[in-house]
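BUG: 3D viewer hangs when loading the predicted structure for this chain

Environment: internal workstation, default settings.
Expected: structure renders.
Actual: progress bar stalls at 90%.

Input used:
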Amino acid sequence: MSSTIPSKGRKLPNQAIGAKVFHSGNIISLFIMLTSGLQIYNANPVFGGRAGLHISPIFTLGAWLAGGRHWHFFAMWLFSLNLLWYGIYILITRRWRHRFVGVNDFKALQKSHNSRRLIYAWHRIVYTAIIPILLLAIFTGIGMYKPAQFYWIVNIFGSWQGLRIAHFCSVPILIVFAIAHYLLGRKAGGEQLTESMFW
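Structure tokens produced before the viewer hung:
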């Protein structure tokens, strides 16, 4: 018995070009931000100061602090603009009605015994929960990018170090949610569905 929901004979619809561009743009920009962010991290680790745990150069991008910052901020703009246009896209096309969590999804978790319905409910919950994590990463990143101009962002988190911790913690949370999103997508539609998101 297959672990995925659809049968082998079911033909899954091809994803809209907007969804393909968005997912591909996210993968590229997040990879650049992650590796360049680790390069920045090595200059002054969030925990332990300069003597803290350092990341192997094989996992970093930028070769040194300034190089890492250049790559990181380039990817930040790519990521932010990609997220902005996709938000406009799903509003115009009304895709949000089928993508984000609703009251019926929470009711399904409490009452439904239909495995397909439960997977779809969890998928929408995870898909929706990613959004505030993405916004937190951008919000704290802006505060670190221009702390003098956006000093009030620093103040929200109590201090510069508090802001750094919040930004740093948003990354592993985002990775966990992205993996959950991918696995639930495979569970709901199989490998064919997840591949259709990119090509």
